[in-house]
Design brief:
The chain is an alpha/beta fold. The chain has 2 domains: about 1-30 and about 135-285, Isopropylmalate Dehydrogenase (3-Layer(aba) Sandwich), CATH 3.40.718.10; about 30-130, Rossmann fold (3-Layer(aba) Sandwich). The chain has 11 helices and 11 strands. α1 (about 20-25) crosses α11, α2 crosses α3 and α4 (about 90-100) packs parallel to α5.
Amino acid sequence: MGESGQQHTVFGDNTFDGYGQLMEAAGRREPITVAVAHPCDAAALTSAVDAAKAGLIMPILVGPQAKIRAAAEAAGLDLAGYRIVDAEHSNDAAAKAVALVRAGEAEALMKGSLHSDELLAEVVHATTGLRTGRRITHCFIMDVPTYPKPLIITDGAVNVAPDLKVKRDIVQNAIDLAHVLRIELPLVAILAAVETVNPDMQATLDAAALCKMADRGQITGGILDGPLAFDNAISMEAARTKGIRSPVAGQADILVVPDLEAGNILAKQLTFLTRADAAGIVLGARVPIILTSRADSVRSRMASCAVAVLLAYARREAQAA
């Protein structure tokens, strides 16, 4: 079993030096068409336009045209050359953005200035949505200055209190994302508060079950271990101190959190205390969904778009195979 730090990824060979190489990998591709749902404030609209100027996406701006143009004027943006699809309100914008994907006019979705729930409600709609056999899940792709490689955290934005069945899809989606990022055999740490199975702590029971599911081929493409406490997952020294012998401990590529609150807190702690960047992507739908926050840095927003580009091209290749 090779260590993931020795694998070749889109980020480089042995160290993760930020999102630069991710942007470079995406930049070698032609831009993809992205339906941007309700980009009606300066932050959302600027994100779409900046990604277009970077050669990552060709945005279709979906929302109330007057509000989009007012946001452009406030932000000093020129919308000449960008397609605008008029919509009555945010719910209508979400529905029309999803419809563009269903019609084959866009290869990805991007959240604008609407609530994530509004967009995802249209994505999971039983008859007009973009559902697949997988659960919709979210991944943060973190650039942590104190960690030597990319760190995927899941799920900190979509599934509030996932059960074992949902966690199986959370893990598999994250592994599939890692493969697109050319992490050939991702090391997956199933996090809990402790590193031993405790019948009174559901997270530890789920961790043990997920590892056994991987042993039985119900989860494929990665190496799983858990339960692991956070320190044991990312620190070799902590793992050695506790006598943990594991191919995952101390060098995880993917951190699977017990629930949304834990994942959200972890990602924001890393962002605000270690100055990490956090790209955000939603998986499990027919197309990638770029899910950004108004608090995200420009760098994180661009990286989110870059990840969507790589996912869209991977989807093309899978369909052509």
